[in-house]
Amino acid sequence: MLVAVCGSVEAALLLAARGEPILGKDAVSVHAAVDALRQTQVFLSDVAGPPDTDNEQRRLTSTLHALDHTIRLAETAEGIDFATVRCGQNDARAGQLCADAMRIATAVGDSVAVLPGIGPSPGAAPAAAGTKAASIDEALAELERCATELGELQRTHRSTTLGAVADGTLTADAAIARVDTLRSLQTLTWHAWRSTFHLVGRDK
């Protein structure tokens, strides 16, 4: 589900950056992902009894963290007006950072085999065993960098964008829409980072 949502968000951001219409099927896939994630949450709630070992307990805790962040990611994606990412330089930079984060999170999700016999999604390149852990660590570090940079950009963007209302450059509605979109992009990137972090079994 993480791969599906992040792939849809990245596609929407790339289309918006080029000024192309967002495909309706992407919105449908995100909505379907939210439903599937909710069903997963119900299933995990119905699992009887605590895990038998400390390792299983840690894995369940990580899975629940990843699930929670992926649900929040998908819910945020449902309500974004991606068209505003081409409205200004900072908006475009935010869109690119978020698209980068979605691409990286998709790659990490593809690299995780959840059960024996279940591998990456179709088309994913196989990773060499010796380099897999290092590449995942690099991906997580890059996701954190994207989230941090977006957080910093959000603060300056908000001040600049709302200030543009006072000098007549933007209407209040347009300014607030742009601020809301950038806040949502930062939220998407944050949850993508944290979801992948827990999905690969990090516990802090």
Task: Provide an overview of this structure.
- The protein is mostly helical.
- It has one domain (2-199).
- 75% of the residues lie in helices and 0% in strands.
- The protein has six helices and no strands.
- Helix 1 runs antiparallel to helix 2, helix 1 packs antiparallel against helix 4 and helix 2 runs antiparallel to helix 3 (54-78).
- The longest helix has 38 residues, at 129-166.
- The two termini are 22 Å apart.
What portion of residues belong to β-strands?
under 5%
Shape: elongated
Quickly count the domains: 1
- What is the share of helical residues? over 70%
Succession of helices and strands: HHHHHH
Radius of gyration: 18 Å
What is the average per-residue confidence, as pLDDT, rounded to a whole number?
A: 82
Structural class computed from helices and strand pairing: mainly alpha
Model regions low in confidence, pLDDT < 50 over at least 5 residues: 114-131
- Separation of the first and last Cα atoms: 22 Å
Number of strands: 0
Instruction: Figure out the total of helices.
Output: 6
Please summarize the sheet with the most strands. Answer: none
